[in-house]
Amino acid sequence: MAIDIKKGCGSLVILSGPSGVGKGTIGARMLARHEDMCFSVSATTRAIREGEEEGVNYYYKTVEEFEEMIRNGEFLEYMQVFGKNYYGTPRKYVEEKLSAGMSVLLDIDVQGAMVVKANYPDAVLIFIAPPSLEELHRRLSGRGTETPEAVERRFAQAKTEFTYVDKYDYVIVNDDLEIAVQDVEAILRSRELSSDHYKSEVFAILNAEAAE
Predict the structure, then answer these.
(1) How far apart are CA 186 and CA 192, in angstroms?
(2) Per-residue confidence at 166, pLDDT binned at 50, 70, 90?
(3) In degrees to the nearest 10, what's the CA dihedral of 166, 170, 174, 179?
(4) Is 0.70 surpassed by the pTM of this model?
(5) Cα gap 23→181, rounded to integer Å
(6) For 35, which DSSP code?
(7) What are the tens digits of pLDDT across the range 26-72?
(8) Which residues lie closer than 8 Å to 144 by C-beta, 6 or more apart?
């Protein structure tokens, strides 16, 4: 079921790319600069971690609650990571924010991005890429939050994610964080200035002149 968003609402912006490319950091910078933008709060079945808050970091659900939401069509997209925890984007949250004029950022994987694009064709798909595979591996290892086996698993997954690049509207290489953020801003600004965005306003001006 596609999202029906009326003119004047915010943009749905999808940031995708392998773990370690800096999607979350870019998104956080965007939020700090733009008051009319928010991150989508996902639902998950993983346990809440120290310092996290319900409705801020995630909506924490039991497996039964999550699967009931799936049956009710309450997700814009969802996935089960490595056969364990579910993660999903609640449709209601996104629709409410867009309708209120907010632009919504989604930090999701490539498969989820394809599902969202099918449900909402006007979504802006941006693939965040590392400057090189060597740099990506260095970033993954440098985080120190996962075992070497988990790092290699994410690195292997990254190579698969690169095959989706041609399905995205834009690609940004995150070699310099500030430039990457500026590139995202430039993309959204260009969308605001597109002919489709202002078409009705231009026609209204022409019609008003013809009526004089």
Answers:
(1) 10
(2) very high
(3) 160
(4) yes
(5) 10
(6) T
(7) 999 999 999 999 999 899 999 998 888 998 888 999 999 999 999 99
(8) none
Which residues on neighbouring strands pair with residue 15, listed in sequence order? 107, 126
Per CATH, the homologous superfamily of domain 12-211 is: P-loop containing nucleotide triphosphate hydrolases (3.40.50.300)
Domain ranges (residues) in the chain? 12-211
Taking the mean position of all CA atoms in its chain, how far away is CA 50? 24
Place of tokens 């800096």: 22
Three-state DSSP at 182 gives helix
Nearest to 104 by CA among 129, 121, 128, 124: 124
- The strand pairing partners of 86, in sequence order, are 80
98 close to 104: Cβ distance less than 8 angstroms: yes
Contacts of 52 (CB under 8 A, 6+ apart): 58
Q: Which of 44, 63, 64 is nearest to 54 (CA)?
A: 44
Q: Which two tokens stand for residue 95?
A: 């629709």
Question: Quick one: tokens of 25?
Answer: 């950091």
Residue 183: phi and psi, rounded to 5, are: -65, -40
